[in-house]
Amino acid sequence: MAVRRATIQLVLMVLLYFSPGVQCFFERISCTISSDCNCDFKPNIRGLEWDLYKNLYGQHLAQDTVSEEVANFLQKESPDRPLVLSFHGGSGTGKTLVSSMLGRHLYGTAMGSPYIHQFVPTLHFPSPDRVQQYRLELKDWVQGNLTACARSIFIFDEMENMPPGVIDILKPFLGPSHTVFGTNYRKAIYIFISTIGEEVIHRMALETRQAGKEREEIRLVDLEDAISQAVFNNSRSGFFHSSIIQEKLLTSFVPFLPLGRRHVERCARRELCQRGECQRTDVVEAVGGAVVYMPEQGQHFSSKGCKSVPAKVNLFL
């Protein structure tokens, strides 16, 4: 009887190993009787790439960097470190939009998954004099959620409002060690969002335009070091004098360029189409003309990106 049982177990193991169909069948059964984040984690890389190129305007650096880094990360069955991306740029340029795209194409929902965790400093870390308390709470929160789901996604918005020192508690989680506090954390994704660095990004975009070049000629290497220095040396930055920056634990800085009028009008057209009013080119032109542009001499870029577009559409529709 024992020999027979062992033989059956061996056959089942062989079937599971060599037959994807059988493996998928058992996985489906497992997912119906248990709450496992691997059941919800269904990455759609092609869908993410298409969404980025279709719905993110004027951001070739973000499109290329995000799609490439996410694809490379997910190709590894056992990554040597988590994916850590830091989004930088002015208001309304698409930073929050891209973080929502990541949630939608990895977990099938923009922000509704229990495995996607968003932090807003003004809400979660409002008092600069409670840094030590916040550090302990953040460590416990991240560690607990990684224990529950190795594929957790952590999004830290408004890093310009994060009290300096809080985020450094994450340093052990971002490096190449196999485990931290007994938890394997290397499949996690961290997204930091900040307006810090927008000055150097705007300067590069303006200089490129004044030189008669296309914005698409701006390369990531042209901005990475400048953004790194900006967030490290700015006392308003959550990364102010951070060891995370010093030890280069971020996978990539992702610049979001300032948007011009043609990008604003594309945002207006998308907003109108979502309301079933695609044909209203008059509203598109009106919105493009009503937005405030900068700098004062030239007025090349929208001061708030596409942030005010929905309100402007309401005004002219």
Automatic annotation (TrEMBL):
The compartments listed are:
Endoplasmic reticulum lumen
Outline the extent of the Torsin-1A C-terminal domain. 262-314
Sorted alphabetically, the keyword list is:
ATP-binding, Endoplasmic reticulum, Glycoprotein, Nucleotide-binding, Signal
List the GO terms this entry assigns under cellular component, sorted alphabetically. Answer: endoplasmic reticulum lumen; nuclear envelope
Instruction: Give binding positions for ATP.
Output: 89-96
One Pfam match: TOR1A_C
Q: What is its main location?
A: endoplasmic reticulum
Signal sequence region = 1-24
Q: Which domain of life is it from?
A: Eukaryota
InterPro entries per UniProt? ClpA/B, P-loop_NTPase, TOR1A_C, Torsin, Torsin_1/2
Task: Supply the SUPFAM superfamilies for this chain.
Answer: P-loop containing nucleoside triphosphate hydrolases (SSF52540)
Q: Give an example GO molecular function.
A: ATP binding
- Signal found in the keyword field: yes
The family line of this record is: Belongs to the ClpA/ClpB family. Torsin subfamily.
Name-wise, this protein is Torsin
- UniProt lineage: Eukaryota, Metazoa, Chordata, Craniata, Vertebrata
